[in-house]
Amino acid sequence: MTDGTDPIAAVASEAPDLWDERAIDPPGGHVLQGAAWAAHRASLGWTPHFLTFASGRVALILEHRRAPLPGFTAYAPRGPIHAGDAPDAVAARAAALAAWVRERGGTIIAVDPELDASADYETALARAGFVPTEEIQPSRHRLVLTFEPGDDDESTFGRVAKGTRQRIRGAERAGIRVVEDREGRHLGAFAALADATAARKRFTLSAEQGFGRWWRAVIASGRARFWVALHDERLLGGLIAYRQGGHLATAFSADDAASRRDLPGTMHVLRWEAIRAALAAGHPSIDLGGVDVRGARDRPSKGAATYGMFEHKASFGAVWVESAQAHEIVIRPVVYRLSLAAGRARRILRRVAAR
């Protein structure tokens, strides 16, 4: 909007027509702003709201209430998307979301659009009352491989680091084959690998988040692709990539750490297959995902716990992209502090009960 604002024009409890085309497909669009994610989170007790701004842009808000406390928590997962607009326009939409939550008696709202780091965005959000907060998603920053005009498998492979090319070819010679699992037959086994990977990398894939059901739903919706690496029908690893923002974006990947010594190169061939799929689809780039974790959000340096993963993804030609931090605004501080205290008490009780 020309006056620097973008107020809410319409709110719906169900996804309006062409919602995913407006929330997922544009630049910066994300599957977590889509109808399938809204339905998944609704199954876990959240209430989705589909908001349309005066500009025609859209945002999914998830609401969660914890009785008997008043108010509610609101979250725009990976939103509001930028859709190619300037950072201050994205901040204006975040401010409009905060105003809407405030009017409805909300306690706090968090936003974390997939947006390149921007001083203008930070300044505009601070002016609206937002403050930086820890990431809600596992990673903030991304490693992105951008294709050159006319690229094909051969030219792209030629720019991959020599050691990575050797691992890919070695894995293929060893009989590791990568196939796309459109039916999700291997999702159960992949979940076990993902849990072990999450434990090693210090983030959580909790059962209550229902990731197994989510993976099945998003693959069925056509908004994700799932590749598995097999050796004599044994699952060595898998990779799930979202189809969003005009490209493919790695969302989850994991391998069997115990097999790395005898059958190295599993993640190399998986990632290469995803890159080939992005090329075949005509995408301009592929997002290979992040490597930063809680407490270590900067580009990892040699010796850091995540440096090996950084080197692995960078070896394909991917470039580190600094992304904007997650932000929140506390609207009802007293209720928010009570909610935090109640959450700590619940976690303590669960730990006691588990002993």
Helices and strands in order:
Elements lengths: L7 E5 L6 H5 L11 H8 L4 E7 L4 E7 L8 E4 L10 H17 L4 E4 L7 H9 L3 E2 L9 E5 L6 H6 L3 H12 L3 E4 L6 H15 L9 H10 L3 E8 L2 E11 L2 E9 L10 H15 L4 E3 L19 H8 L4 E3 L5 E4 L2 H22 L1
Parallel strand pairs: 4-5, 11-12
Antiparallel strand pairs: 1-2, 2-3, 3-4, 5-14, 6-14, 7-12, 7-13, 8-9, 9-10, 10-11
Structural overview:
The chain folds into two domains: 8-138 and 324-354, Gcn5-related N-acetyltransferase (GNAT) (Aminopeptidase), CATH 3.40.630; 142-321, Aminopeptidase. The chain has eleven helices and 14 strands. A hairpin with a 2-residue loop joins strand 10 (234-244) and strand 11. The strands form two sheets. The protein has a seven-stranded mixed β-sheet. Strands 8-9-10-11-12-7-13 form a seven-stranded mixed β-sheet, sandwiched between helices. The protein has helices at residues 19-23, 35-42, 87-103, 119-127, 153-158, 162-173, 187-201, 211-220, 266-280, 307-314, 333-354, and strands at 8-12, 47-53, 58-64, 73-76, 108-111, 131-132, 142-146, 177-180, 224-231, 234-244, 247-255, 285-287, 319-321, 327-330. It is 36% helix and 21% strand. The chain has 355 residues and is α+β, with helices and mostly antiparallel strands.
